[in-house]
Amino acid sequence: MKNSLLIFLLLSISMMGQDSNKKNTSNTETITLGGGCYWCIEAIFENLDGVKTVVSGFSGGTTVNPSYDEVCTGKTGHAEVVQITFDKSKTNLDEILKVFFTVHDPTTLNRQGADVGTQYRSVIFYRNDEQRKTATDIINDLNKNKVYNNPIVTKVEPLKKFYKAENYHQDYYEYNKNKPYCRLVIQPKLEKFEKVFKDRLKKK
């Protein structure tokens, strides 16, 4: 991935939705994203200024109220996702997607690193046509500018149902920082996020 071009392009397109956000009377918005293991994505977005809540769960499949073990079989059709609710006076959908496309590889089909299976696919579940258009425009811009060496495989699909994962999956990194997966997989992604978006971190 051409990091400098990626950051430049995403900084530019991050301004696209600000005017439309001002026209919306609601001060919050929710989007559902899948980019590999939800522990990784959750830990990152919990540190972005303007994000109010991040909930790990499942979406995109046919099994009703699936368990984590069921989703891990790859037979439910669900992807591991995070449901992100953010304050539009502090951030916007463009920035949310900017972070999303920076911290995971959207060009690998049904995998992120060693996590392999349809449950780890890259996907954006939209709630309205504005979200669909924003996501599609960003993907088209990234492909057009050849930011990645390979085409983006991220799917953009309507959200049908979100199922919250078991409680022990919520805030997983926060409570399990010393476990090998957290140290070897999540921590490097979090460090990358903190470096690229150092001016957008929540104040602790």
From TrEMBL:
<dbReference type="GO" id="GO:0008113">
    <property type="term" value="F:peptide-methionine (S)-S-oxide reductase activity"/>
</dbReference>
<feature type="signal peptide">
    <location>
        <begin position="1"/>
        <end position="17"/>
    </location>
</feature>
<keyword id="KW-0732">Signal</keyword>
<dbReference type="InterPro" id="IPR036509">
    <property type="entry name" value="Met_Sox_Rdtase_MsrA_sf"/>
</dbReference>
<keyword id="KW-0560">Oxidoreductase</keyword>
<comment type="similarity">
    <text>Belongs to the MsrA Met sulfoxide reductase family.</text>
</comment>
<dbReference type="InterPro" id="IPR002569">
    <property type="entry name" value="Met_Sox_Rdtase_MsrA_dom"/>
</dbReference>
<protein>
    <recommendedName>
        <fullName>Peptide methionine sulfoxide reductase MsrA</fullName>
        <ecNumber>1.8.4.11</ecNumber>
    </recommendedName>
</protein>
<feature type="active site">
    <location>
        <position position="37"/>
    </location>
</feature>
<dbReference type="Pfam" id="PF01625">
    <property type="entry name" value="PMSR"/>
</dbReference>
<comment type="function">
    <text>Has an important function as a repair enzyme for proteins that have been inactivated by oxidation. Catalyzes the reversible oxidation-reduction of methionine sulfoxide in proteins to methionine.</text>
</comment>
<feature type="domain" description="Peptide methionine sulphoxide reductase MsrA">
    <location>
        <begin position="30"/>
        <end position="182"/>
    </location>
</feature>
